[in-house]
């Protein structure tokens, strides 16, 4: 079953990766196609504009327009135009600006004209549509054979102009690349965390199971010793045997708690919810703990009893864990108040103690698994940092909200908000 789940997870991850890569490839192909289309459109616009410039240069003259297309594209951003008619540079520049503006071709350009007297190309001007575009140094325009009256035009920023028109496509492609990177990183992190969690759970299961056998043997042997007359007659031996049994039971309880947590991680916890009168449960637990810890003072404040939907077993464990923590983490006589109040249809169950409290920087982590605050008291109290984690899991199971705050002076208050089904 575990292998089947793992295979299914790997299949979902692989399908997700293939889908994102496929979308990214399609997006890049579409972007490339859009760029090619824009390149063709740019070239067509330039041809149309330059043809209009030629017509304007021929107006008012006795010459006829050339039969062949006078515009030739020499390279990606370089064009020559055969006019076969004499013209002035200022007029040419005026017509070029006018025609480019008509078709919204707002990119920088530079031009040059053939000079019959010097038999070479003469640089005309650099026309910028942006104040940020610096005027470049004079660019060499090659001379072309068999042409007399002609001019050449170059678009030095054609690529950047087309990139700006396709900005949305490139931003979308970049966003998809980022999504792919985040997806791959997230999957890698999840897999690493899953492996770590499985190793940790296997270690805990093996460790606790290895503890169970010697603990059972110790308890059996200790209980047998307690029944012996020699042990009963010797006060010291009886006391030491009691200590062995008590500590073995305590360690056995810790092992059971670890096993329950590990089991709840591998399989979801279930709750047999039934209507429960809360006040008798609290009073019974408080009485039992008061007998166990005779120095502890536990007070219950409530105007009346409340009926809640809960699992009796988990609810009992929750209250015992919270009260046990409050008693253990106190440097003076433990005084704990269990307070029941209502706000609308919500019951607030508060556990208020006078213990050592929790540093504000550590308060957000007290419900984490295996988390123990590094201080002197934590070193004195035996435990694995599982009690409050178990309490949190029980609250989540019942869909209750739990929080912890420091009291003014000393101690903390753990508050649980519970929906009231019937008052």
Provide a descriptive summary of the structure in words.
- This protein is an alpha+beta fold.
- It is 53% helix and 17% strand.
- The protein is built from ten helices and twelve strands.
- The strands form three sheets. It has a five-stranded antiparallel sheet with strand order 1-2-5-3-4, with helices on one face. It has a five-stranded mixed sheet with strand order 7-9-10-12-11.
- Strand 1 (71-75) and strand 2 form a beta hairpin.
- The longest helix is centred in the middle third of the chain and has 60 residues, at 167-226.
- The model has no long low-confidence stretch (mean pLDDT 78).
SSE blueprint and pairings:
Blueprint: H1 2-58, E1 71-75, E2 78-82, H2 89-102, E3 109-115, E4 120-127, E5 150-154, H3 158-165, H4 167-226, H5 229-233, H6 235-266, E6 274-277, H7 278-292, E7 297-301, E8 307-310, H8 312-328, E9 335-343, E10 346-352, H9 376-380, H10 387-398, E11 401-406, E12 412-419
Helix pairs in contact: 1-2, 1-4, 4-6, 7-8, 8-10
Q: Which characteristics define this entry?
A:
10 helices; 423 residues; single chain; five-stranded antiparallel β-sheet; rod-shaped; 53% helix; five-stranded mixed β-sheet; alpha+beta
Short description:
With 423 residues, the chain is an alpha+beta fold.
Number of DSSP strand runs: 12
**What value does the average pLDDT take?**
78
Low-confidence stretches: none
Instruction: Specify the number of helices.
Output: 10
């Amino acid at each position: 079953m575990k292998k089947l789940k793992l295979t299914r997870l790997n299949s979902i991850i692989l399908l997700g990766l293939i889908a994102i890569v496929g979308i990214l490839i399609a997006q890049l192909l579409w972007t490339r196609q859009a760029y090619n289309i824009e390149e063709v459109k740019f070239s067509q616009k330039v041809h149309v504009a330059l043809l209009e410039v030629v017509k304007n240069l021929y107006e008012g003259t006795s010459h006829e327009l050339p039969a062949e297309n006078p515009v030739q594209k020499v390279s990606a951003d370089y064009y020559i135009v055969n006019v076969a008619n004499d013209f002035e540079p200022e007029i040419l520049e005026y017509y070029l600006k006018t025609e480019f503006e008509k078709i919204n071709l707002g990119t920088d350009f530079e031009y040059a004209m053939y000079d019959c007297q010097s038999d070479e190309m003469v640089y005309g001007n650099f026309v910028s549509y942006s104040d940020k575009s610096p005027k470049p140094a004079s660019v060499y325009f090659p001379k072309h054979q068999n042409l007399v009256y002609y001019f050449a035009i170059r678009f030095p920023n054609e690529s950047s102009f087309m990139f700006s028109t396709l900005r949305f496509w490139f931003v979308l492609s970049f966003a998809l690349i980022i999504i792919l990177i985040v997806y791959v990183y997230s999957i890698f992190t999840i897999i690493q965390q899953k492996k770590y969690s499985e190793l940790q759970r296997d270690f805990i299961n093996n460790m606790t199971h290895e503890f169970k056998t010697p603990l059972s043997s110790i308890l059996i042997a200790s209980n047998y010793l307690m029944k012996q007359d020699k042990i009963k007659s010797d006060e010291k031996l009886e006391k030491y045997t009691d200590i062995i049994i008590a500590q073995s039971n305590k360690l056995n309880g810790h092992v059971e708690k670890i096993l329950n947590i590990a089991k709840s991680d591998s399989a979801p916890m279930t709750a047999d919810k039934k209507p429960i009168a809360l006040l008798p449960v609290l009073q019974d637990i408080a009485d039992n703990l008061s007998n166990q810890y005779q120095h502890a003072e536990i007070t219950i404040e409530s105007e009346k009893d409340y009926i809640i939907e809960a699992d009796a077993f988990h609810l009992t464990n929750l209250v015992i864990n919270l009260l046990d923590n409050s008693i253990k983490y106190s440097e003076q006589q433990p005084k704990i108040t269990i307070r029941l109040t209502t706000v609308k249809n919500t019951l607030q169950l508060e556990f208020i103690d006078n213990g050592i409290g929790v540093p504000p920087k550590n308060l957000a982590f007290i419900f984490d698994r295996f988390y123990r605050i590094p201080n002197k008291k934590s070193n004195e109290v035996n435990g694995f940092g599982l009690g409050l984690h178990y309490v949190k899991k029980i609250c989540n199971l019942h869909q209750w909200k739990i929080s912890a705050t420091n009291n003014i002076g000393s101690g903390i208050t753990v508050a649980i908000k519970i929906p009231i089904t019937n008052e």
